[in-house]
Amino acid sequence: MTPAVAFFYGGMVRAKGVLNMLMMSMIPTATIAILWILFGFSMVFGDSKGFIGNPAQYAGMHGVIGGEQGTIPLFVFAAFQSAFAIIAVALVAGAAADRMKFSSWVVFSALWGVLCYFPAANWVFGTGWILNTMHAVDFAGGTAIHINAGAGALALALVLGKRVGFGSKPMRPHNTTMVMLGAAGLWFGWFGFNAGSALGANELAGIAWINTLIGAGAALLGWIIVEKIRDGHPTTLGAASGMVAGLVGITPACAAVSPLGAIIVGGLAGIICAMAVGLKYRFGYDDSLDVVGVHMVGGLVGTVVIGLVADPTYMAIGHPAALEANGSGLFYGGGIKLLGVQALCAVAVMIYSFVVSFIIAWVLKKTMGIRLSTKDELTGIDLIEHAEAGYDLSNVRYTSYRIRDSLVLPASPKSPTGPSATAADSDKTGANA
User: Which stretches of sequence are listed as region Disordered (predicted)?
Assistant: First the structure.
C-alpha cells in the first residue's frame, strides 16, 4: 500500500515535483521501519505505562520469539503492524507537496511517528485507553491512522504556508493515470489492511473483506455523483479520491456494521469528503493533496457513524467487549452511549495529533528550517532537492556540478558552457534559462 500511496500522490503533483513526492512517500519504509524494530512495536504493544506502552519491553524485538497474538506468532503480528506504522506516516506527506525541504521532512516524519503515531496506536490497537477503557470501535485504524494523519497534515500545512501561486494559478495533477493506478493499488492492498486485522482466515476476515469492497464502491459512486451535480462531469481524479475516501471511512467500521451499513458508511464518506476537499480554499490553508479532506474527514465520518449503524449481530463477532460496554448503534436501539464514545475518541486523537504535529513543525521551522525559498520552489523541488527530473522533456542538462551550474542553455557561440565556462558565465546563463 505504501508504494501505491506514492503513485497516488505522485500523480497528483505537478511534473516538477513527482520524484520528491515519491521519495517523501517511500522514506518511511526506511526510517519508521527501523524505529519500529528498535522501540516502536514495544511502545504500541508493550505493557501500558498509562500514556504509552513500555518502550523497553520488546526493544529490538527482544522477547518476541515464542510469543503469540491471538492465533499467530508475535513476530508475524509485529511484521504486519509495521506496515500500519509506515503508511500512517506516508499519508501525511501529501500536505507538504512541492515546498518542504526533504531533510526536514525526514526529521519531521520520524518525530511524528514516535510522538503521534506510536501513542495513538497504543491507545487504539494496544494496551491503551481507547481500546481497553473506553471500548471504542476502531477495527483497523480510522482514528490512529487516518484522523491522526489528517490532523498532522493540517498542522504541517499551516506551519509550512501556501505554495507559491496557491489559489491563483492552476496546480492540476500532472498524471491522472498514476493517480488511478495508485488508488487501485490501495484498494487491493486495503483488503489485507482490514481483513488481515482479523489475524486469521475466518468469518471475521470475510465480514471485513466484504464491507471493505462495498464501502469503497459506495464512496466512489457518492463522490462522482457530487461531481456530476456540482461540476457537470464525473472525473477520474474524483473516482480515485472517492475510492480512497470510502476505504478510509470503512476502516474503523468494517467489523461492526452489516453490508448495508457499509454502503451507508461508504456513501456518506464519498459525499462528505467530496465536499470537504474544497474547505482549504474557503479557509486558506494549503493541504496540497487533500489529506485533511479525505483522511481526517473520512476517518471522522467512519468512526462517528459507527455510533449510528453498528449492528449488534456483527459487533458480537468483531467487537464483543464494545457491544457489552457501550451497546450497538443508535439506529439499532443501542442508545447514544456508543455514539458519544466514538465521537469523544475521534476528537481526542484529532486534537492530540494537531497540537503535537504543530509543535514538531514549528520547532523544526525555527531550527533547521522547513520551507524551500520562493526561487527554488519555482525552479522545481525535484531539481533543487534531488538533482533529478521525473521526465526528460526539456533542454535542461544535468551534470555532476552544482544544481545552479546545471541549469544552463545548450551550448551556442554566444553562450559558453561546460567545464571551461567560468562561474560568472554559469550564473548568467542559468538566469537566462
Answer: 410-433
